[in-house]
Each structure stands twice: as C-alpha cells, then as structure tokens.
Amino acid sequence: MATADPPKPRIIQRLEAQRERHRQRSFLVRVLYTIVGFTVLLVGLAMVVLPGPALIVIPIGLALLSLEFAWAEGMLERALEHAERAKHTARRTTTRQRVLIALAVALAIGGLIAWAIFGDIPYVSL
Question: Are 77 and 19 in contact (CB under 8 A)?
Fold first, then answer.
C-alpha cells in the first residue's frame, strides 16, 4: 500500500504557478532575477555566521532562484518541509517542557549577566 505524498506547502504551489509566468519574461529580466537570487542567497549564507535573519533571507534567495533552477526548488521544498515538521514538533511540546526551557534560558541569561558584573568579561570601549 503506497502512502500519499503530503501536500506541498502553499508557497511552493504559488511558485510553480509563478514559474510559468516567469518563463514568458525577457531574457534580461530573467538574468536579473538570477543575479538578485544568488546575491540574496549569498547574503543569507553569510548571515549564518554573521548577525542577521539567515533563516528568512536564505529561503527568499532560494525562492527567486527556484524560478530558474530545479535544484533551488528542491532545496526550498526540503527547507519548507523541515520548517513545517519543526512547527508541528513545537506544538506538541508540553507545558512542563516549555517551562523547563524558559527556566534554562533565564538561568543562562542570569549567568551571563552575573559573569559580566562579577567576572572578567573583556569588552570593547568606544
């Protein structure tokens, strides 16, 4: 008995429809989309190690590139499927788990504050 594939995320369905319209655009516009897509993707990848919203910027770059490249569409689909599973996992957490996580975060922040006040954390003076 074969299992049915889960429905594709709505954004993927919209991008598939947009791809058909995108193919009708001029060559120059398609090249510009590709350049912007790669630029946004590279900026997002840099944000993995630098400050910034990498988890938002990378999918935007992949969405732009998915209009031209099948590999970008596949990566975007996998990323969105992982995000959907993470959302469902987060919903299944119990109140006890949420309280323990909040307590752990509060203790970590308190420890860092105590270390900054009483410890010897170097800082940059302006």
Answer: no
Domain regions of the chain by residue span: 10-90
Helix axes 10-22, 54-66, angle to 10 degrees: 40
Place of tokens 């469902």: 88
Amino acid sitting at position 19: R
CA-atom Rg of the chain in angstroms: 21
Eight-class DSSP state of 26: -
Q: Model's pTM, two decimal places?
A: 0.63
Q: How far apart are CA 25 and CA 97, in angstroms?
A: 51
CA atoms within 13 A on the CB side of 102: 7
Summarize pLDDT for 91-107 with one digit per residue, the tens: 888 889 889 999 999 99
